[in-house]
Amino acid sequence: MFNIMGWYASMLYYNMYNNNMFQRTNVTKLIHTNNMKMNNMKMNNLNMNEWLVGMTDSNGMFNIYINNNKIIFTYKISLMINNIQLLYKIKNYLKIGSINYTNNMVMYTINNNNDLLNIILPIFDKYKLLTSKRFNYLLFKKCLLINNNNNFNQLLKINLINNIINNNNNNNYNNNYISDSWYNIYKNYKNINMNNMKMMNNMLENNLLMINKIMTKSWLIGYMETKSSFKLIKKDNKIIHYFNINMMKLDYIVMYSIKLLLNININMNNYKLETFDNKSIEYIINYLKFNNHKSRLLGMKSYEYTIWKRSYYKYKNNNKKLLIIKMLLDKNI
Description:
Elements: H1 7-17, H2 24-39, H3 48-59, E1 60-67, E2 70-80, H4 84-94, E3 98-102, E4 105-110, H5 113-126, H6 133-147, H7 154-171, H8 183-186, H9 197-205, H10 208-214, H11 217-227, E5 228-235, E6 238-246, H12 252-261, E7 272-275, H13 278-287, H14 300-315, H15 319-332
Antiparallel strand pairs: 1-2, 2-4, 3-4, 5-6, 6-7
Helix pairs in contact: 1-15, 2-4, 3-11, 5-6, 6-7, 9-12, 14-15
C-alpha cells in the first residue's frame, strides 16, 4: 500500500473490497476506543465548544414542533452512517442526547428541555454561530425561554411560539441575515451593500486580523468535517491534489472569510471554494496542523485528509501511485 499511513490506508483498502466495513460490531470497537481517548484529553488546543458550533453551522439544526398541545424542541446533527463515530464523540463530550439510525443516516438528537437550557444554550450564547443559522438559533432560544416561563399557561405558550414561527415564515427575515458574530467588522461600514460582493470582499480583506478572531481554527475544523473534500482529480492527464468546501448562498461573508484564512487565490464558483494550486494545498495542510503536527479532524474526514496529505508529500507527480490512491479515496468519499 506504499506505506502511506499504515492503519488508515489498510482501512480504505479493506473498504474497497468489503462494503460492510461499518457493521455494528466494527463501529462499536471504534466508538469504544475513541470514547476512552476523549475522556482525558483537552484536544491539544482544539476548543470543543467552538468545534461543535462549526459542526452545527455545517450540519446542525434547531427545530420546534407543536403537536397535540405539546411543544417539542430539538437540537439535531445528522450524518451519513459511516461517520457514526463522530456523533458518539459529540455525545460523549456533552454527556447528553441520543443517537438513532434511519436507512443510511445516523442522527444525534437532544430534546430534553433542561439539557437544552443548561448545556446547549450556554455554549451557543458564548460561541456564536457564524452562518445564517444564528438567526434560527435565536428564534429557537426565544421560544424555548417562553416555554420555560412558569407564568404562562400552555395555551399562551403555544400562541406566542406560533406567532413567532409564523411571523418568521411570512417575512423571510433570514434571507439577508448576517450573524452578529461579524458585527465588529461591518459596524464600521455604515453604507455598505451586503449584496455587493466587491464591497464585501474589500471590507473583509481589510479586516483579516479580526476575521482570525471571529473564525477560529476550531470552528473551521468543525465546519470542514462535513462540508469539505480532500480529493485527487485528473487534470491535463495528471493526477493532482484538490480541495473544496461548500457554503450556502446566504453565507457569502463566511465563505469569503474562509477563502482569506486558507489563502486560496482561485475565485469562488457557485458558492464552492476550490483549489488545486500547490501553494494553496500546502498552506491548507500547514493551517490544519496543531502543536504536535497532527490535524484535529475527528470524523471520517480525518482518514480522507491524512491519506490526501501524506500522498501529497510522498507521491506528488507520481501518476501511477496517485491513481491507485485516487481510486481508494473515491470509493470512500
